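Structure ticket #2291
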Amino acid sequence: MKCNKCGFESERDFEYCMNCGTKAKDDKAVTVEAVSLNPAVDIVMPALKDKLFLVLCILMTTACALSLATSGMPLIYILITVFLWLTYADAQKGIVNEKHLQFISGTVYAQYIIANVVSIILLVCGVLFGILFEIVAENISFWKVFVEELEKNGLSLPNTSENIMSICGILLSALFVFIAVIVLVFNLLGMRKIHRFAKSIYLGIVCQNSNFERPRTVKNWFIFIAVMSAITVLGNLTSFIAAITSVCTTAIMIIVAMLIDKYFVKEM
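Resolution: structure written out below.
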C-alpha cells in the first residue's frame, strides 16, 4: 500500500501512514493531524531528507575521490561516505535506518580513537627525540667535527657542540609535544562531543528519545573546524587538487553545522 500524500510504501495495508500520519481512505489521502510515535524520527527524518544532506553526500564523495587521486584517503572516510549515502537513500524511502546511523557513529568513534593514538605517539616521540639528541650530543664525534669546521670558517656558534645538539633536541622535542597536545585537546574537547552527538542520534531513534547530546556545542565545533579547514586552503594554493579538497572539507563542515542548527538546535 502507498500513501498518496508522502509516497511511503508498505507491503501491508494501513489506515494511517506510518511516515506522515495521513489517513488512507478509498485510495485518497485525507490529511489528519500527525501523531508522533517517535519524536527523534520527527527531527532526524527532515534533516536526512533535506537537500543540504544530499549536497553533503556529494561533497564527501568529491573529497574522497580527490584524495584517492593524490595522496590516498583513509578507509574511515570512505566508510562514512558510504554510510551517509545509504542513510540518505533510506530517508528518501521514508525510513530511518538505525543501523546505518550506528555505523556513522562508529566511524566517528574510530576517528576519535585514532586521533588519541596519534597524539600519544607524538608525545612519546617528543620525549624520545629529546633523549636521543642528548645522547648524540655527547657520543657522536662527526657532529663535533662538523661544528669545528664551521668555527674555522668564522661562524659564531654556542660554546660547545653539545649545546647546539641540546638546543636542537629541545626544539624538536617541544614541537612534537606541542602538536601532540593540540591534537589531544581538540580530540577530547571536540571529537568526543561530536561522537556523543552522533551516538545520541542513533540511540534516540532506538529509544524514542529526542534529547540529543549538546547540539549547540557540536555546531560550534563544526564551525571551528570549518575555519581551520579554510585556513589550510591558503597553504594548499600551490596544488589545485589539494586546494579543492580543502574547499570541499570546509563546505562539508559548514553544511553539517547548518543542518544541526536547523533541525537540532532550534528544536531544543
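Closing remark: The longest strand covers residues 23-25.
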